[in-house]
Specification:
Strand content: 35-45%
Shape: elongated
Distance between the termini: 85 Å
Largest sheet: 7 strands, mixed
Radius of gyration: 25 Å
Structural class: alpha+beta
Helix content: 25-40%
Order of helices and strands: HEHHEEHEEEEH
Length: 173
């Protein structure tokens, strides 16, 4: 009987070792990429764990509804804006309202949204791959495929940078 119990314990131990040894290895990448310049130089990027992606989705919905209050809910009073058309400078809710007053309707379709931040930084960069169509009251249509970066500081957008795919292609011809 003692031999039987020892054999069962040994077999149980062997089964446990085999089961634990067969568990898949965790290959999750917690960080990747690297900041090359600036105050965060040398830091790796991680997927941001805050709610900035949700705030961006709310901002996109407000833009599509031409809702100025909703659009500016997560923006600083003045945002530094580097537009794809070359404009660089401060941008305010009032400036956006003036632009929207000239539009009949807008469509901002986002294909992907990626919130990232440098390890150890409070700044979050939300990267968007998007298509923006603005139907102006004068009959013209603004149609752009954009890559955009929205920089959040303490939950608020403080800087926006845009790149237009067509503009980028013009420079490579």
């Amino acid at each position: 009987m003692i031999g039987y119990i020892r054999t069962m314990k040994f077999l149980t131990f062997c089964c446990m070792v085999m089961l634990l040894g067969c568990q898949p290895k965790d290959t999750t990448v917690t960080s990747n990429g690297k900041v090359l310049l600036g105050e965060q130089a040398g830091s790796e990027f991680v997927i941001a764990a805050g709610d900035e992606d949700e705030k961006m989705m709310e901002t996109i919905e407000a833009f599509n509804n031409m809702d100025m209050d909703g659009l500016w809910e997560h923006m600083a009073d003045t945002v530094t804006f580097h537009m794809a058309d070359g404009f660089e400078g401060p941008f305010t809710k009032e400036m956006m309202a003036g632009f929207m007053a000239e539009a009949d309707s807008v469509q901002w379709e986002v294909m992907s949204i990626i919130p990232v931040q440098a390890k150890g930084s409070n700044s979050v960069r939300v990267l968007l791959d998007s298509h923006e169509k603005i139907y102006m009251k004068d009959g013209s249509v603004v149609d752009k495929k954009l890559f955009e970066e929205f920089i959040f500081e303490e939950g608020t957008v403080v800087k926006i940078r845009q790149w237009d795919a067509a503009t980028a292609m013009e420079g490579s011809e």
